[in-house]
Amino acid sequence: MKRSLPFILALSFLVAFFYFIPLEKLKEALSRIPIPFLLLAFFFYSLSQVARAVRWKVFLDNLSFSQIFWLSSVNVFFNNVIPARLGELSWFYYAKKLNVVFRASLWSFLVGRIFDILAMFFVSGIVFRGYLITLSIVSLLIVLLFHKSYFMIPKWKKLEEFRNYIKERSSLRVSLYLFVLSCVSFLTKLAALQTLVYNSVGFDTRLVPSFVAGELSSVLPLHSFMGYGTYEMSFSLPLKLYGISLEDALLTAFLFHNFLLISSAVYGLIGLVVLHYNDSPP
């Protein structure tokens, strides 16, 4: 029963969604996305993935850019599809397949996730200012001090080897470089959302907290299959708090969620073929 719960959640949401949201309204929303806007949104999504791949190069310097890009793309795809962040295991599986030592794959993985969150909080604080500017300040302080984080790892057996690796690879310059690329990745992915729904809502900063909530939804304990239901509800809640109807909020969330799934599948499926059938991806 526990294993089937993510599928039950996803199916229940889809049934409820198509029951309460008229099909005509969904068609109307799709018709308001011109093909050039859709292509531009995909272009911004692609830039986001490129920024992520460039970021990994700091720690995976034995791999080519294309290898890192496909590795990252496969990881994003599995994260979008498999519940409860189990898709993260694909990072370690394919990194090992590409002969990346475990300490490098582990540290790049941890740093990537930490800087993703710092970038989200930093940009959110800048956009909304007020007391939320504290998020930006704290995020920036963490970035500035991050190269000293190896002090928190004890000198114990295998951990000492990992600690020394981090010490050798970390510096203030590297931290700032990673942070800038993480912000670029976040902003270009947000630009994809703004572009996709521009004809419906225009440029709207209220989408930022919804976007952040949707990004964080994948860490929920009950993350559904392909994120259906958990993503939409997480994305919709901030919009609902702004007074937007739940129907419109869910529709926006559903459209962008499917855009992300399809976009990640385009690169992820190609990446699977490349990583599985080529000893040295191009």
Automatic annotation (TrEMBL):
The top of its lineage is: Bacteria, Pseudomonadati, Aquificota, Aquificia, Aquificales
Provide a GO CC annotation, any one. Answer: plasma membrane
Source species of the chain: Thermocrinis minervae
Membrane-topology annotation of the record: Multi-pass membrane protein
Q: What is this protein called?
A: Lysylphosphatidylglycerol synthase TM region
On the tree of life, the source organism's domain of life is Bacteria
Membrane-spanning ranges: 6-22, 29-48, 106-127, 133-153, 174-196, 249-277
Where does the record say this protein resides? Cell membrane
Instruction: Please indicate if the UniProt record lists Glycoprotein as a keyword.
Output: no
InterPro entries under this entry? L-PG_synthase/AglD
Recorded hits in Pfam families, A to Z, give: LPG_synthase_TM
Q: Which UniProt keywords apply?
A: Cell membrane, Membrane, Transmembrane, Transmembrane helix
